[in-house]
Amino acid sequence: MKRILLSLALMLLLLPGTASAVGTLEDTVYHVAGDLYVMRLTWTAGAGGVFDDATTSSVISGLVGVVVTNPGSTAPTDNYDIYLYDVDGVDFMGGTLANRDTAETEQVLPKVHADGTYTIFGSRPVYGKVLVRVSNNSVVSATGVIRIFFTKE
User: Fold this and answer.
1) What does the pLDDT look like over 64-79, one tens digit per residue?
2) 3-state per-residue secondary structure call for the chain
């Protein structure tokens, strides 16, 4: 019986961890000046370049303006996509974070879907934690930083 338990324990230790398969997300909110804040998200892809949905521990309560993306030192696949979902499950950037570059820092404004079209909007209200999705990446341990600039309500 002890051998069986020891064998099972050893097999469990040798299995890859869930965190390494799905990737990791770290978030921090910083005060910039006045009522301007930035939520800094640092993500790392796991096995096979997978980054499953991850929710921030910090919350946004205000108007989101510009979002800046920067690929890390281990760049993701070219034209990787980022989606940022609010508590209602809506990509509050309206798809503007698709097709990110692997070498350049890029910035975009939110787009709002209304009347069947997307319109660039200077800011968009967001409340709550943010669900982050990175897709179209196949680079194992790819990294990136997302900065969400917002004014607090």
Assistant:
1) 999 999 999 999 999 9
2) CHHHHHHHHHHHHHCCCHHHHHCEEEEEEEEEECCEEEEEEEEECCHHHCCCCEEEEEEEEEEEEEEEEEECCCCCCCCEEEEEECCCCCECCCCCCCCECCCCCEEECCEEEECCEEEECCCEEEEEEEEEEEECCCCCCCEEEEEEEEEEC
Extents of the domains making up the chain:
21-152
Indicate whether 35 pLDDT > 60. Answer: yes
| CATH match of 21-152 with 1.10.287 | no
